[in-house]
Amino acid sequence: MQTILGAGGATAIVLAKELKKYTGHIRLVSRRPARVNADDELFPADLLNAREVEAAVQGSDVVYLTAGLEYNIRVWRRDWPVLIKNVINACLKANARLVFLDNVYMYQASEIPNMTERSRVEPPSEKGKVRAAVQDMIFNAVNTQGLQALIARSADFYGPDVKNSPLSISVLDEFRKGKKAFWQVDAGKVHSFTYVPDIGRSLALLGNTPDVCGEVWHLPTSNERLTGKDFINMIAAEMQVQPRYYIISRLMMQVLGLFIPILKELKEMAYQYDRDYVFDSSKFEKKFAYKPVGYAEGIRQMVQSQVV
């Protein structure tokens, strides 16, 4: 049996479909799980409750943790350590392999223009410090308790039916409303994005490959060097609208953050937009002979999936 903790999001939906290639028993776990495949087992659970997580993981061979938390540093500090501890303990008890979907917040700011699995972990943000602590918890359990686990990392994500992608929020959704798109800090910098269907497919590959544990894996991401302005132009062309946009500066984030909580939370991450942000996934691509979806096709699918 293979189990998805945090089922329901766009990545988990793709993953659940992909896992049909590997197993006849898929368990979907969340507060209110919904079937993706007709024969999925639904298991309601709160990942902050240790006993419920243990029950949800029991009998699993592979566990995928794709859960997210509210984008709020107080919530992250309070809940991520509890959630990860619960999942580690449950996987150890069940002798299950853990695949954790992570982001790049823990990397040192100077690594952002060339991120690899060997990039230095020295986070410049409070959210990054939480993610670095999560990584330490997992690899400490690997090294001292015999946990079989790996960390699968993606860049900022986008794709069809993905509502909370930066490209959807700042560009596609604004164009749909007849408004200007917006970009953080500098639209002239390169910025990598990972296609959500590639994330789901590659998580399934990692979960069903025995010799990849104990490592960080960057998930397949196009190596095309496109800037924020390039993405805005591509989405505008696909939607047949004018590529109008404006820049949200750090000062704007600080002022508007008084009224818009998400901007207050994003301000500390603005360093990811004031320099090139390049995500290298060559390790994964060589291991699995995998070619990630290109941006033209990914944006076409993203726009078509969200046509009103």
Automatic annotation (TrEMBL):
Any Pfam family the entry gives? Epimerase
Q: Where is the NAD-dependent epimerase/dehydratase domain?
A: 4-209
Q: InterPro entries per the record?
A: Epimerase_deHydtase, Lipid_A_modif_metabolic_enz, NAD(P)-bd_dom_sf
* Entry-linked SUPFAM superfamilies: NAD(P)-binding Rossmann-fold domains
Q: Which PANTHER family match?
A: BIFUNCTIONAL POLYMYXIN RESISTANCE PROTEIN ARNA, UDP-D-APIOSE_UDP-D-XYLOSE SYNTHASE 2
Protein name, per record: NAD(P)H-binding protein
Q: Which organism is it from?
A: Dyadobacter sandarakinus
Lineage of origin = Bacteria, Pseudomonadati, Bacteroidota, Cytophagia, Cytophagales
